[in-house]
Amino acid sequence: MTHRFRFPVPAADAWHWFELADTGRMLRQITFRGPSRVPVVAVEAVGLAAARQACGEWGARLYEVVYGVPEREPVAAPPDAEAVDLRDFELAWGRARAYRQCEVRHDTGPLPVGTRLTGTFTVSPWGPGVTGVFVDAGLPAPGFVDAAVLLEAGCQWPAAGTEADFEVVDLRVGGGQPRIRLRPTAVPPPGEPWPRPGRR
Fold first, then answer.
1. What is the mean pLDDT of residues 25-39?
2. In the chain, how many domains are there?
3. Residue 34 contacts by C-beta under 8 Å, 6 or more apart in sequence?
4. What three-state secondary structure class fits 166?
5. Are residues 61 and 22 in the same domain?
6. Sign of CA dihedral 19, 59, 105, 10
7. Residues with Cβ < 8 Å from 30, sequence gap 6 or more?
8. I want to staple 182 with a disulfide (CB 3.0 to 4.6 A). Which of 143, 151, 155, 163 is the partner?
9. Entry pTM
């Protein structure tokens, strides 16, 4: 049977919410901190394990940059814990995940937002002008440039094998797969070839 509970940690000005399997294994953890109850942790054990499996420790560290660092020790409900029903847990979970994904600037860890790197556009499975293009930047996870970035620039759609310089603009981890959103630091004028990347 799954157990859900929450309890305060006054010394840290925090509330921990846990969902545990009947074995006591942590399934999900949420931590809110401060008077505004800012979500600082929204970790799902299966998601963290999937990120580790997909990209090794690099993927696990990236997951924790996005969703926070969970408790490492086995968790047990303290005497002052309050039971939480599934509906209330899911509401808190949704709020915490959305905040960690969309409101936090992920500027720490193995690949901080703002990092500059050189990469190569690879084949777009959707064709030119649709969805976006994947980028091989020599990382454990692929980069991705959204089509809107290229369409707004009015530049030539990059052919597979085109090298360019990029900036990391966002990190996401969904389905256990880290996703690195990139933006070219320079795009060619309409009709012109892509500029050669600077060497770092």
1. 95
2. 2
3. 13, 14
4. strand
5. yes
6. positive
7. 16, 17, 18, 39, 41, 42, 89, 92, 93, 96
8. 143
9. 0.88
